[in-house]
Amino acid sequence: MHPMVCRPQLDLLPERTDSPDDEVRTQVWGLLTTLYPEHELTERRQQGRYPFPHLVRLTPVGDDGTPCGETMVVVGKHLSQRGLGFYHCKPLPYRRMIVSIQSGGRWLGFLIDLSWCRFTAAGWYESGGRFLRSALPPNDVEE
User: Fold this and answer.
1) What's the mean pLDDT when you consider all of the chain?
2) Res. 111 pLDDT band, cuts 50 70 90
3) pLDDT by residue (tens digit) across 5-53?
4) Could you give phi then psi for residue 122, rounded to 5 degrees?
5) Which residue ranges form the domains of the chain, and what is each CATH number?
6) Which of 115, 77, 82, 84 is nearest to 99 (CA)?
7) pTM confidence score
8) Phi, psi of 109 (to 5 degrees)
9) To 5 degrees, how large is the angle CA 67–CA 106–CA 98?
10) Which DSSP state fits 91?
11) Rounded to 5 degrees, what angle do the CA atoms 129, 77, 24 make?
12) What does residue 24 show for φ and ψ, rounded to 5 degrees?
């Protein structure tokens, strides 16, 4: 299976010349090798995930699919053809929401079923779910 997230090429690190830039570069590469070890992890997902570090708007919806609460802004993590992973600073009491993403000057909307959430060590939450269908973004996302 192909890797789902880009991995740094460790053999591209130039030889060290003891300048401040080299020290920074060495520390950054050390961080990258910790975050992306050389061994491949078994990927259980069928769809590729793409880094998605963008602001995303989430609007809770009722059982009938209509917006029923205040829109909130979260930070995207990964995007796939089937769903979205993101970070947020408060617990989400909703299971279904409309995801609104701005693209090329217009808003795209998706109904998402949030299926998982975990608390991170930094005091934030990481959540994600599967897109159920496309949806009209609520009117308040343009504010």
Assistant:
1) 81
2) very high
3) 554 555 555 555 566 777 787 777 777 777 667 655 555 556 688 899 9
4) -85, 5
5) 1-43 (no CATH), 50-142 (2.30.110.10)
6) 84
7) 0.70
8) -130, 145
9) 25
10) -
11) 160
12) -60, -50
